[in-house]
Write a sequence for this structure.
Protein backbone atom coordinates (compact mmCIF):
# COMPACT_ATOMS: atom_id res chain seq x y z
CA UNK A 1 0.00 0.00 0.00
CA UNK A 2 1.30 3.41 -0.87
CA UNK A 3 1.47 6.06 1.85
CA UNK A 4 -1.36 7.98 0.18
CA UNK A 5 -3.45 4.78 -0.07
CA UNK A 6 -4.11 4.87 3.66
CA UNK A 7 -5.03 8.55 3.52
CA UNK A 8 -7.32 7.94 0.53
CA UNK A 9 -9.07 5.11 2.33
CA UNK A 10 -9.41 7.25 5.47
CA UNK A 11 -10.96 10.04 3.40
CA UNK A 12 -13.31 7.51 1.78
CA UNK A 13 -14.47 6.22 5.18
CA UNK A 14 -14.98 9.76 6.43
CA UNK A 15 -16.93 10.62 3.28
CA UNK A 16 -19.07 7.50 3.61
CA UNK A 17 -19.88 8.61 7.16
CA UNK A 18 -21.07 11.94 5.73
CA UNK A 19 -23.14 10.17 3.05
CA UNK A 20 -24.81 7.97 5.66
CA UNK A 21 -25.52 11.06 7.76
CA UNK A 22 -27.01 12.82 4.72
CA UNK A 23 -29.24 9.81 3.98
CA UNK A 24 -30.45 9.73 7.59
CA UNK A 25 -31.28 13.44 7.42
CA UNK A 26 -33.04 12.94 4.08
CA UNK A 27 -35.13 10.11 5.54
CA UNK A 28 -36.14 12.33 8.46
CA UNK A 29 -37.07 15.27 6.22
CA UNK A 30 -40.36 14.02 4.89
CA UNK A 31 -43.14 15.89 3.12
CA UNK A 32 -46.30 16.55 5.16
CA UNK A 33 -48.15 13.85 3.19
CA UNK A 34 -45.73 11.27 4.64
CA UNK A 35 -46.07 12.10 8.32
CA UNK A 36 -48.03 8.88 8.87
CA UNK A 37 -45.37 6.79 7.17
CA UNK A 38 -42.87 5.21 9.54
CA UNK A 39 -39.35 6.58 8.98
CA UNK A 40 -37.33 4.35 6.69
CA UNK A 41 -40.25 2.57 5.06
CA UNK A 42 -40.48 4.49 1.79
CA UNK A 43 -37.98 2.01 0.33
CA UNK A 44 -40.20 -0.86 1.46
CA UNK A 45 -43.19 0.79 -0.23
CA UNK A 46 -41.14 1.20 -3.42
CA UNK A 47 -40.11 -2.42 -3.33
CA UNK A 48 -43.72 -3.57 -2.86
CA UNK A 49 -44.80 -1.47 -5.83
CA UNK A 50 -42.01 -2.85 -8.00
CA UNK A 51 -43.15 -6.43 -7.27
CA UNK A 52 -46.87 -5.80 -7.23
CA UNK A 53 -47.75 -7.51 -10.51
CA UNK A 54 -46.46 -10.85 -9.25
CA UNK A 55 -47.24 -10.24 -5.60
CA UNK A 56 -44.64 -9.35 -3.04
CA UNK A 57 -43.74 -11.60 -0.12
CA UNK A 58 -42.20 -10.30 3.10
CA UNK A 59 -39.35 -12.79 2.65
CA UNK A 60 -38.48 -11.17 -0.71
CA UNK A 61 -38.62 -7.72 0.88
CA UNK A 62 -36.18 -8.79 3.57
CA UNK A 63 -33.75 -10.24 1.04
CA UNK A 64 -34.11 -7.32 -1.37
CA UNK A 65 -33.39 -4.79 1.35
CA UNK A 66 -30.73 -6.82 3.21
CA UNK A 67 -32.83 -6.71 6.36
CA UNK A 68 -33.74 -9.30 8.94
CA UNK A 69 -37.20 -10.83 8.36
CA UNK A 70 -38.34 -9.60 11.79
CA UNK A 71 -37.44 -6.02 10.83
CA UNK A 72 -39.46 -6.29 7.61
CA UNK A 73 -42.32 -7.90 9.52
CA UNK A 74 -42.48 -4.91 11.89
CA UNK A 75 -42.23 -2.43 9.00
CA UNK A 76 -44.99 -4.18 7.05
CA UNK A 77 -47.21 -4.34 10.15
CA UNK A 78 -46.76 -0.58 10.61
CA UNK A 79 -47.56 0.06 6.95
CA UNK A 80 -50.68 -2.10 7.19
CA UNK A 81 -51.79 -0.22 10.35
CA UNK A 82 -51.23 3.07 8.50
CA UNK A 83 -53.50 1.87 5.68
CA UNK A 84 -50.72 1.98 3.08
CA UNK A 85 -50.37 -1.75 2.47
CA UNK A 86 -52.78 -4.70 2.46
CA UNK A 87 -52.07 -8.39 2.76
CA UNK A 88 -53.90 -10.91 0.60
CA UNK A 89 -53.73 -14.66 0.28
CA UNK A 90 -51.13 -15.84 -2.22
CA UNK A 91 -53.07 -17.57 -5.01
CA UNK A 92 -50.17 -20.01 -5.53
CA UNK A 93 -49.78 -20.82 -1.83
CA UNK A 94 -52.72 -20.12 0.45
CA UNK A 95 -50.48 -20.36 3.52
CA UNK A 96 -48.51 -17.31 2.39
CA UNK A 97 -49.66 -13.74 1.85
CA UNK A 98 -48.71 -11.18 -0.71
CA UNK A 99 -48.39 -7.48 -0.10
CA UNK A 100 -49.97 -4.76 -2.18
CA UNK A 101 -50.13 -0.99 -1.93
CA UNK A 102 -53.46 0.63 -1.23
CA UNK A 103 -54.47 3.70 -3.21
CA UNK A 104 -53.37 5.76 -0.21
CA UNK A 105 -50.04 3.89 -0.23
CA UNK A 106 -49.52 4.72 -3.91
CA UNK A 107 -50.36 8.40 -3.30
CA UNK A 108 -48.02 8.62 -0.31
CA UNK A 109 -45.23 6.86 -2.22
CA UNK A 110 -45.68 9.18 -5.22
CA UNK A 111 -45.50 12.22 -2.93
CA UNK A 112 -42.43 10.89 -1.11
CA UNK A 113 -40.62 10.08 -4.34
CA UNK A 114 -41.43 13.52 -5.77
CA UNK A 115 -40.14 15.10 -2.55
CA UNK A 116 -36.88 13.11 -2.64
CA UNK A 117 -36.41 13.79 -6.35
CA UNK A 118 -36.80 17.50 -5.67
CA UNK A 119 -34.24 17.29 -2.84
CA UNK A 120 -31.79 15.47 -5.12
CA UNK A 121 -32.38 18.00 -7.89
CA UNK A 122 -31.69 20.85 -5.46
CA UNK A 123 -28.52 19.16 -4.18
CA UNK A 124 -27.29 18.52 -7.72
CA UNK A 125 -28.42 21.82 -9.24
CA UNK A 126 -24.91 22.95 -10.19
CA UNK A 127 -23.65 19.52 -11.31
CA UNK A 128 -23.27 18.86 -15.01
CA UNK A 129 -25.01 15.84 -16.56
CA UNK A 130 -21.56 14.30 -17.02
CA UNK A 131 -20.76 14.71 -13.31
CA UNK A 132 -24.10 13.17 -12.34
CA UNK A 133 -23.56 10.24 -14.72
CA UNK A 134 -20.01 9.65 -13.48
CA UNK A 135 -21.13 9.83 -9.84
CA UNK A 136 -24.03 7.45 -10.51
CA UNK A 137 -21.78 4.95 -12.28
CA UNK A 138 -19.17 5.09 -9.52
CA UNK A 139 -21.77 4.75 -6.79
CA UNK A 140 -23.39 1.79 -8.59
CA UNK A 141 -20.03 0.09 -8.96
CA UNK A 142 -19.13 0.72 -5.33
CA UNK A 143 -22.48 -0.64 -4.09
CA UNK A 144 -22.20 -3.70 -6.35
CA UNK A 145 -18.64 -4.38 -5.20
CA UNK A 146 -19.59 -4.05 -1.52
CA UNK A 147 -22.56 -6.37 -1.99
CA UNK A 148 -20.45 -8.87 -3.94
CA UNK A 149 -17.75 -8.74 -1.28
CA UNK A 150 -20.35 -9.43 1.40
CA UNK A 151 -21.96 -12.20 -0.63
CA UNK A 152 -18.66 -13.91 -1.33
CA UNK A 153 -17.04 -13.27 2.08
CA UNK A 154 -17.73 -16.82 3.33
CA UNK A 155 -16.09 -18.25 0.20
CA UNK A 156 -13.06 -16.00 0.66
CA UNK A 157 -12.74 -16.97 4.32
CA UNK A 158 -12.96 -20.67 3.44
CA UNK A 159 -10.23 -20.28 0.81
CA UNK A 160 -7.81 -18.74 3.34
Amino acid sequence: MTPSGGTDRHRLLATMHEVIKAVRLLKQDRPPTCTGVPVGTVGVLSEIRARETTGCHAKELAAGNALDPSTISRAVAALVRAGLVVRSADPADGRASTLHLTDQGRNVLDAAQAHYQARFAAALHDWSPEEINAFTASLQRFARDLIDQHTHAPELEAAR
Remarks:
- The longest strand covers residues 93-101.
